[in-house]
Design a protein that fits this description.
Elements: H1 16-25, H2 31-51, E1 58-59, H3 67-74, H4 91-99, E2 109-111, E3 118-120, H5 136-148, E4 153-154, H6 159-164, H7 171-199
Parallel strand pairs: 1-4
Antiparallel strand pairs: 2-3
Length: 223
């Protein structure tokens, strides 16, 4: 019998996560130091689970603010008022969506189902066209494997759940968005199956390939 975990608290043993974010927002911590601090917390969380003997360890459950906002950023779903022009969502834009900026109001925050956790509500306007801008789950998998030797289980928000938690779309548009968002995941799975067939019965493909939509990973930050 194997043990598994659905997710791990991101706050840090001494609330380091919260302190780092607040220091960055106050201008007391630069972006590079924030990335380094949160990476340390993220890897420490994984190491604790590994050292406790958990067999199936989740990766990609860590976030810089909210996992639904991470999904929005991963597919370039950013409200027009933030001036997003495509490509990878940078950290100032990411936090502007979550907290607002001098010129733009923050996106709505509401409860995650019936819990006290809150998430940033995605805004799906008429011009939204989801495109994979960065493969966060794949990066999380590769980081855990390279840094700690952990074969992690990537945590992702499914297309249906994401859409049901969003606002600003018509039912017909939702079906189009659902197909578009799911296509990136399906393409990666098909690519992985094809590779396994090429390797043959004795070969072993990289599990992370199942999350790779065929695009190069160029992300320089960890949302």
């Amino acid at each position: 019998m194997k043990s598994g975990n659905l997710g791990y608290p991101r706050i840090g043993q001494d609330r380091e996560w919260k302190k780092a974010l607040e220091a960055y927002w106050a201008g007391k911590l630069d972006e590079a130091t924030l990335h380094a601090t949160l990476k340390e917390i993220r890897l420490d969380n994984l190491k604790k689970q590994r050292d406790q003997g958990i067999d199936v360890i989740p990766v990609g459950d860590f976030t810089y603010y909210d996992h639904i906002l991470d999904t929005s950023a991963m597919f370039g779903i950013v409200p027009e008022r933030f001036g997003y022009a495509g490509g990878e969502v940078d950290l100032p834009t990411y936090y502007a969506v979550a907290r607002g900026s001098r010129d733009s109001a923050a996106s709505e925050m509401t409860k995650w189902f019936n819990t006290n956790y809150h998430y940033i509500v995605p805004e799906l306007g008429a011009g939204v066209d989801p495109q994979l801008t960065v493969n966060g789950p794949l990066e999380a998998y590769r980081e855990a494997k390279a840094e700690l030797g952990i074969e992690g289980r990537p945590v992702v928000v499914g297309p249906y759940t994401y859409l049901k938690l969003s606002k600003g779309y018509a039912p017909r548009g939702a079906r189009r968005l659902d197909r578009s968002t799911a296509a990136a995941v399906c393409a990666g799975a098909a690519r992985a199956r094809s590779r396994r067939r090429r390797l043959g019965a004795g070969g072993r493909a990289d599990p992370g390939d199942e999350l790779d939509g065929g695009r190069p990973v160029t992300r320089s930050s960890h949302l």
